[in-house]
Amino acid sequence: MCYFRTFDPIVPMTYFLCVMSICVFTANPYLQACALLGGVVLLLCIKKAKALKLLALSLAVIAVMGATNPLFVHRGLTDLFYIGKDPYTLEALLYGLSLGCSIASLLIWFSVFNAIVTQDDILAVFGKRLPKTALVISMILGFIPKLRRKYTELLHAQYASGASRRKSLHRSAVLFIACLAYEAERVMDISMSMKARGYGLKDRTHAQRRRFRKSDAAAIAFSLALCIVCFVFIGKGRLDYWYYPRLSPNGFDPFGVGSYLLLCISPLFFIVKEKTLWRYCPAKT
């Protein structure tokens, strides 16, 4: 997303921290709907067709959590039907859907985060003060994609050598162990190489490709201000929502929910602006 590329790397990190921290610490369905809506819109803008698989997985998570939670939790006053002697309650069903929405929102936002924040951005932000931690985090974020690519390469190599295309658990286990061995050796090589270059030493110089500008400070202040407003409303109880023993009659505050919705969809304004300028304002020759 070109919009985030124009800012210092700390700007998207602060933005995602603000969005996901509220999504984690609240069970308010209105806030969860805002997080889910903003995440889906950004995911479709970034990955487009590739986002359909993750959206299908998110819908499956929501459906499974909603359907199975009343099987184990029988709290609530509104009985829909009985399974044996245990009631299947409306409150437990809605609470399961709420948990599913929270998990799905986190999956989507982490996917967006992984697509926008690169390993170089993490090293640029934390490399000077926490070099070892920054290196570990950047390697963890890149571990799964590289492991999947290596698994695909080994599988295609087996196909090219004449191996059968039938799926088997034994072959998958062998390829997975080979990928883990390859990644372990690669990590050792990287750590030895970084140590030989003096990475993490006190006298090591740190080069920053981007300068921290006023627009970066304004973007961070905007994200933090909306996040603080939401936490203030949560702390005052104006966004509290409960499911047991019956559904909460309140929990919707227009200013608090609107602040979080604005935080979640704020990048959309810049994306639309950028595409509009690109399409209708050609460069003068």
Task: For the structure shown, list the relevant keywords.
285 residues; two-stranded antiparallel sheet; globular; mainly alpha
Descriptive overview:
The longest helix has 28 residues, at 169-196. The two termini are 27 Å apart. The protein folds into two domains: 1-117 and 212-285, no CATH class; 126-201, no CATH class. α4 packs antiparallel against α5 and α8 (143-160) crosses α9 (169-196). Strands 1-2 form a two-stranded antiparallel ribbon. It has helices at residues 2-5, 10-24, 29-47, 51-72, 90-116, 119-126, 131-141, 143-160, 169-196, 214-235, 254-280, and strands at 79-83, 86-89. With 285 residues, it is mainly α.
Topology summary:
Elements: H1 2-5, H2 10-24, H3 29-47, H4 51-72, E1 79-83, E2 86-89, H5 90-116, H6 119-126, H7 131-141, H8 143-160, H9 169-196, H10 214-235, H11 254-280
Antiparallel strand pairs: 1-2
